[in-house]
Amino acid sequence: MAYFNGNTKSLERPGNYVLTDVSIIPYARKGDEGIFRQIITDQILEINIYESIEKNFLTGDMTIIDGVNLINEIPLTGFERLEFKLNTPGEDKGYDFSVATGHPMMITGIRNKSMLKDRIQSYVLEFCSMERVSNDLVRVTRPFEGNTSDIILSVCRSELDSKKNLVIEETKTNAKYVPPRVKPTKVINEVCQMSESKNFESAGFMFFETGLGFHFKTYESMFCDSSGTPREVRARYSPKIVTQRDPNHNKDIINALQSVESFKIKSQYDTLRHLNYGTFASKLVTHDCFNKKFNEYDFDYHIQYEKEKHLEEGDGNGVVPLFNFKDGKSISDFKDMKIHFISETDKVHNNYDYLGKTSKTQKRIAQKAALSTIVLEIEVPGFTGINVGEVVHFTHPSFKPVKTSTERDYDPYLSGRYLITSIRHMVSIKVAKKHTMLVELVKDSFNQSLPEDNIDLFTGQEKDEGDSYLQYDLDGA
Predict the structure, then answer these.
(1) H or E, element range at 424
(2) Of 38, 50, 207, 232, which is the most exposed, with the fewest CB atoms less than 10 Å away?
(3) Phi, then psi, of 221 in degrees rounded to 5
(4) Which region holds residue 398: left if phi is over 0, alpha if psi is between -120 and 50, else beta?
(5) Is the dihedral of CA 179, 55, 414, 200 positive or negative?
(6) What mean pLDDT value characterizes the chain?
(7) CB within 8 A of 240, min separation 6: which ones?
């Protein structure tokens, strides 16, 4: 899959963008004209569009410089449609919020209103997908039965009233489910947590929206196709001197698009957080009300890791090293570090799966927590042909002196395949007049294996015991 699917001649430099007129469509007519459009392109300072696999819907905002009092002229009430198209020149993929060919957004709020100077004000217009508004209008009261992926499809088309594309990964969970008069996203998110993939060991799905529509997927299906083959990376980002010419002096816009202007590691290790979540190991205690019995399930990171698909291939590439942590045990042998207590009951709906918190809970929580171990944020030229849920490659510099010309100047652990979890598109209309992106990347495995060791290097090397004192004796002394 090519990073740029369009005509590179249409793109003069990285950061170029094509933006149609931005129009506000009020709910009230102007006379007998029917649909009235107020074009506000000249009043816009910046547009932001947000995608995230942790969020169910697309959101955005735009900063307005208003010298004609649009707020009262339209007037703005928080019920208007917002219409425009945004894409990279030559690239087919983008954001189509038009009435004719796409799906308009809805303006939902105004914030940070202030006076710049006499008769000129600024404020931020907030907007979101129409499905986000539909989610707050209705409650789900009907029962469901069958495959859980069909439940997701049904809720999207009925309660959310979505006409957008929907990409669904099939599940093997066959359940009956009666929602207790809750919002559609409450149903969707509960079904996501309790569903199992048809092809992978994943437990738990993600439901999110991109410029292409809605997606119902597991992490493993984002890493690999249905056959288990790793998905081809959509881009190869690296910090480098931006050049728009290749060695033959031809325009190399693709190379410039994949240059990283800045980056930061937001997280690389957080052992205490993983201990609290049970990423390394955990114990699940379940109570079956029907059969009146308790069951226990142990989770071991190192055992489970070999059963799943990951961003980097190799059984020993996980983010948790295998070594003698204490008393001849690895860190994943301490199952009591996190104990889950869950009630699950057989025969609630005869032969249907019980759509409650199951023994897959440990695996779901641990997999998601492991993906938050390495979190990287990069700033790159804007490009609408890439979305959250896709895999990219990032070359992390080594930050060490290079002694020879043949020595590789990259970090052997942090370089490699990453999953895009969020994108913020920042389109500057007035000042910089360019499109940039803040992209968050995560990684659940290293590019090469961490060292393994079965020798306890700590026991006997540290002080064996401390002294105990009574406070009142110390006071008397």
Answers:
(1) strand 416-428
(2) 232
(3) -70, -20
(4) alpha
(5) positive
(6) 89
(7) 259, 260
Residue 389 near residue 210 (C-beta atoms within 8 A): yes
Region at 399 (left for phi over 0; alpha for psi -120 to 50; beta for the rest): left
At a CB cut-off of 8 Å and minimum separation 6, what does 33 contact?
none
Q: Which helix (H) or strand (E) holds 363?
A: helix 361-370
**d(Cα 236, Cα 255) in Å, to the nearest integer?**
9
What tokens appear for 22 in the block?
Answer: 């931005």
Q: Are 106 and 82 in contact (CB under 8 A)?
A: yes
Distance CA 134, CA 407 (A): 56
Give me the helix-helix angle, 148-157 and 184-194, nearest 10°: 160
Cis bond upstream, residue 89 (ω within 30) = no
Cα–Cα nearest to 432, from 97, 39, 47, 120: 47
Examine the pLDDT at 356 and tell me if it is beyond 60: no
- Is the pLDDT at 25 greater than 90? The verdict is yes
Bridge-based pairing of strands 120-128 and 59-66 is antiparallel
Convert the pLDDT of each residue in 133-164 to its tens digit. 999 999 999 999 889 999 999 999 999 999 99
Summarize pLDDT for 275-322 with one digit per residue, the tens: 999 999 999 998 887 778 888 999 999 999 998 999 998 878 899 999
Q: Sort residue 328 into left (φ over 0), alpha (ψ -120 to 50) or beta.
A: left
Nearest CA-CA partner of 50 in 426, 433, 430: 426
Report the half-sphere exposure of 169 (CA within 13 A, side-chain side). Answer: 28
pLDDT band at 458 (very low <50, low <70, confident <90, very high): confident
3-state secondary structure at position 193:
helix
Distance of CA 36 to the CA centre of its chain: 36
Cβ-in-10-Å burial (0-12, 13-18, 19+) of 223 comes to: buried
Residues above pLDDT 70, as percent of the chain: 91
CA separation for the pair 252, 68 (Å, rounded): 43
**Which among 352, 289, 313 is positioned nearest to 446, based on CA atoms?**
313
Give the per-residue pLDDT at 403.
Answer: 65
**Three-state SS for 415?**
coil
Strand 236-237 vs strand 391-394: parallel, antiparallel, or unpaired? parallel
Res 406: pLDDT: 58
Pick the residue with more confidence: 423 or 71? 423
Confidence of residue 240 (pLDDT cuts 50, 70, 90): confident
Kindly state the tokens that stand for 35: 């649909």
Contact predicate 465/338, CB 8 Å: no
Task: Please tell me what DSSP assigns to residue 336.
Answer: G
Strand segments, DSSP code E, in 84-119 are: 85-87, 94-96, 105-117
